[in-house]
Design a protein that fits this description.
Order of helices and strands of chain B: HHEEEHEHEHEEEEHEHEHEEEHHHHHH
CATH architecture of the largest domain in chain B: 3-Layer(aba) Sandwich
Structural class of chain B: alpha/beta
CATH topology of the largest domain in chain B: D-Maltodextrin-Binding Protein, domain 2
Radius of gyration of chain B: 22 Å
Strand order of the largest sheet of chain A: 1-2-9
Order of helices and strands of chain A: HHHHHEEEEEHHEEEEHHHHH
Strand content of chain B: 15-25%
Helix content of chain A: 55-70%
Distance between the termini of chain A: 34 Å
Helix content of chain B: 40-55%
CATH class of the largest domain in chain B: Alpha Beta
Largest sheet of chain B: 5 strands, mixed
Number of domains of chain B: 2
Strand content of chain A: 5-15%
Oligomer: heterodimer
Radius of gyration of chain A: 29 Å
Largest interface: A-B, 49 and 53 residues
Chain lengths: 438, 339
């Protein structure tokens, strides 16, 4: 452009905005932008006007008020005297929990079903087709409600476990109880535990004073981190790191000499032994659920609402993931299989070493959108009474305070942030598994 | 030019808002139909019968208002609402009035900007349990799993009750009465809690109703009544005085059987005359025809008749009048004078 020596000296006229092709597209865009802004301004103005007409104001102060209601599944310390903020946060953690569990389960089921649907075994392939078509073509809300109804109606109530000759009994050496209120499983306990670490403790809180056992109360700090868990994660992380170094060393020796030293027992030992030692040091034992009063006490309680939601969301999304996996595998040319086969690889190794790694780059992008779908679908939780963030902030809090606009805006923001975070992580992973072209 | 468009849009927005603020009474008359919010299905209070016709104690209030305003008790569009959706439906103008066993509380009246026009049922929150659970008092429910309708005052009462009594419980939030019933009957919750009248209504539909008992503790005051949006006092007056007419009619002995006869000519009792429009201009003051109360009363009769027909002791729900008797018989019902 700099080489243009003789620019036209024609003066600018207003008509050129429409008739001159150099400016026309710009004019159209600006007009469209103004139109859009007017529309947005009208929407906002209309909202504010109508809210004022109803005598309502916009404000988020209500969030620090006492919530007044109880939530059954709490990953944080919460009671009815906590604030709406905290209730929303407890709900958020429940949303994240079911989304996380759901994504993992859906991926595992989906990959298996997708591969099995391509099986040469006629029966297995057809069965998988039936599964995929059944789940994909029925609304997920129906699956959620259906799963819950099955749990409630078919499993025994805790009452059935009572008496000398109970109608129902616990399974797996009396350690797991399947009831229509949920499943009770043994919980890990540590007799020489390290306790909890409060984050941002408030010295004025009486619960933050050390008791006889040298521990603080449950409500101390914004939330508490279990030091036992932290310790075990650190030990496991360190072991895995060492194990990785051993593998690298084996790779190096293989590259230098052509022989690969057998490292399997060494690596297993490095991972398992320190972990077991840590468990023993902490005094690990299991706490078993026991029927006391109305319900089972002790053990970990997986509520029927969580299980129904988790199962239904996983099975539903897995059907979509299965199709994505199948499409990814079919996208790899048959020549790859044949070449691998000619090299003498067995079918399952061809799948895991040759086909799947190449198929991943086709699979990952649509997989991301299915993870997002699962997360957003988890807002159907209220159908089974699972208290996710839609149930707390968008349900009870909204209903008790009457702040519809604020609550819904916050909900939208929360789901937006969750979805964008999942996208970011998965896009990063996608970059890593992408075919590197030279 | 853009500026004029902007101002025009603002004016338009203002106009559409002011249309919505115009008198609801006129709007209902022009529309020829009353939009009335009711429960999604509580037997005796609001539930469709075998023919799909809505029947019940709360439904009768809607029909009486429709008869008074539109001279047609069937000109009602019933909008089923859940505990969660009811207030949004009313605030947004989707419904003209809400008659859905809704508790009159300070924050709903003041903060949520609604007007409660009166009380048509004095209720309290109770607990329903199976007899074979061996529980005789709500204070023995420590550790129990309790089903509760989400988005109701009962949710907050329950939290308070267990906290004050230093007991633990496991709340199971449910959306509708039907879900609560299903979970309770399957044993997924030990107890179902809501207003005692609702519990009685729900229990009446059980196959083994005798196996269930409502615990003696009533843990809250729940004055239930119809409500309208705040700010339209003319409309609020119409609903309020229709309800009062139903209550006063029972006190004055006006029934569905004798209302036409009493309204044909002025009688001895001046208050009956004023209410039925044979004397004075009360109807005109409300913006309704003189015989508005006659029409409201000829649908299902007076308050007592509506009570007996839908939820009274002769029905499967079998509620005694209790607090809901006239003040002259020791109850709390006390309609202001028609004067």
């Amino acid at each position: 452009m700099t080489s243009l020596t003789d620019p036209p000296k024609e003066s600018f006229r207003l008509g050129m905005l429409i008739y001159d092709t150099r400016y026309r597209s710009l004019t159209i865009q600006i007009v469209a932008l103004i139109g859009f802004m007017i529309f947005a301004a009208w929407l906002i103005n209309n909202t504010l006007y109508n809210l004022a007409e109803q005598g309502k104001t916009i404000g988020f102060g209500f969030l620090s008020d006492t919530a007044g209601y109880d939530i059954n599944q709490r990953l944080l310390d919460y009671n009815s005297q906590s604030s709406h903020w905290r209730a929303a946060f407890v709900g958020l953690l429940n949303t994240l929990l079911v989304a996380f569990l759901g994504c993992i389960t859906a991926t595992i089921i989906g990959v298996f079903v997708g591969i099995l649907r391509l099986s040469n075994n006629w029966l297995i392939a057809r069965l998988m087709t039936v599964y995929v078509e059944m789940f994909r073509n029925v609304p997920v809300l129906l699956w959620i409600v259906f799963t819950m109804a099955i749990m409630i109606e078919t499993l025994p109530a805790p009452r059935a476990f009572k008496g000398d000759d109970p109608q129902a009994s616990m399974v797996l050496f009396d350690s797991v109880a399947f009831t229509n209120r949920g499943v009770y499983i043994p919980e890990p306990l540590f007799s020489r535990g390290l306790g909890d670490m409060p984050i941002l403790p408030d010295a004025a809180n009486p619960d933050c004073q050390l008791n006889e056992a040298g521990e603080v109360g449950d409500s101390c700090g914004i939330f508490q981190i279990n030091i036992d868990l932290l310790f075990l994660v650190l030990v496991l992380g360190a072991s895995l790191f060492v194990s990785g170094r051993i593998r690298k060393r084996a790779d190096r020796i293989q590259n230098e000499t052509g022989d690969r030293p057998n490292t399997m027992y060494l690596r297993l030992g490095v991972v398992i032994l320190p972990f077991v030692a840590a468990l023993i040091a902490l005094g690990f034992h299991l706490g078993y659920p026991e029927l006391k009063g109305f319900n089972f006490k002790g053990g970990t309680y997986l509520r029927n609402s969580l299980i129904a939601l988790w199962l239904a969301l996983s099975l539903y999304t897995a059907a979509f993931i299965a199709e994505i996996v199948r499409a990814g595998i079919l996208a790899i040319s048959k020549g790859q299989t044949e070449a691998a086969s000619a090299l003498g690889l067995r079918p399952n190794r061809i799948m895991s070493l040759v086909i799947l790694p190449q198929a991943l780059r086709v699979i990952i992008p649509p997989l991301i959108s299915n993870y997002l779908n699962l997360t957003k679908n988890s807002s159907l939780a209220i159908a089974v009474g699972y208290m996710d963030i839609t149930g707390t902030l968008g349900g009870i809090t909204m209903n008790q305070t009457g702040k519809e606009l604020e609550c819904v805006l916050m909900l939208m923001l929360v789901y937006l942030v969750i979805s964008l975070s999942i996208s970011a992580v998965m896009n990063w992973y996608n970059e890593r598994v992408k075919l590197v072209e030279r | 030019m853009n500026k004029t468009v902007f101002v025009g849009v603002l004016a338009l927005a203002g106009m559409s808002a002011s249309v919505a603020a115009a008198g609801l009474l006129d709007e209902v008359k022009t529309r020829g139909k009353l939009n009335c919010g009711v429960a999604t299905g509580v037997p005796g209070f609001a539930a469709p019968d075998a023919n799909g016709e809505w029947q019940g104690f709360d439904v009768a209030v809607c029909r009486a208002v429709a008869a008074a305003v539109l001279d047609d008790p069937t000109a009602v569009e019933f909008v089923p609402t859940t505990g969660k959706t009811r207030f949004t439906a009313l605030a947004s103008g989707e419904i003209d009035m809400l008659a859905r066993n809704t508790t009159w509380t300070f924050s709903r009246d003041v903060d949520l900007k609604f007007d409660f026009v009166g009380v048509n049922y004095y209720d309290g929150q109770g607990f329903l349990v199976r007899k074979d659970l061996g529980v005789s008092s709500a204070k023995e429910l420590d550790g129990a799993t309790v089903c509760i309708q989400t988005g109701t005052t009962t949710e907050l009462n329950l939290a308070d009750f267990f906290r004050i009594n230093n007991m633990e419980y496991e709340p199971v939030p449910i959306e509708t009465n039907a879900e609560g019933q299903q979970q309770y009957l399957a044993g997924a919750c030990d107890s179902y809690t809501t207003d005692a009248s609702g519990l009685a209504a729900t229990r009446a539909t059980f196959e083994d109703a005798a196996e269930h008992v409502i615990l003696p503790e009533i843990i809250s005051k729940e004055p239930l009544g119809p409500l309208v949006r705040h700010g339209d006092n003319e409309w609020a007056d119409v609903v309020r005085w229709t309800l009062n007419a139903l209550i006063a009619a029972e006190e004055l002995g006006v029934t569905s059987a004798n209302v036409t006869e009493l309204a044909s000519a002025a009688g001895n009792n001046p208050e009956i005359n004023r209410m039925l429009g044979t004397e004075g201009t009360l109807g005109e003051m409300l913006g309704l025809p003189a015989d508005w109360a006659v029409k409201a009363l000829s649908v299902n009769g007076n308050y007592g008749e509506i009570f007996e027909k839908n939820i009274g002791e002769t029905t499967p729900i079998g509620l005694a009048r209790g607090l809901n008797a006239q003040w002259t018989s020791g109850g709390l019902l006390y309609a202001p004078p028609f004067r």
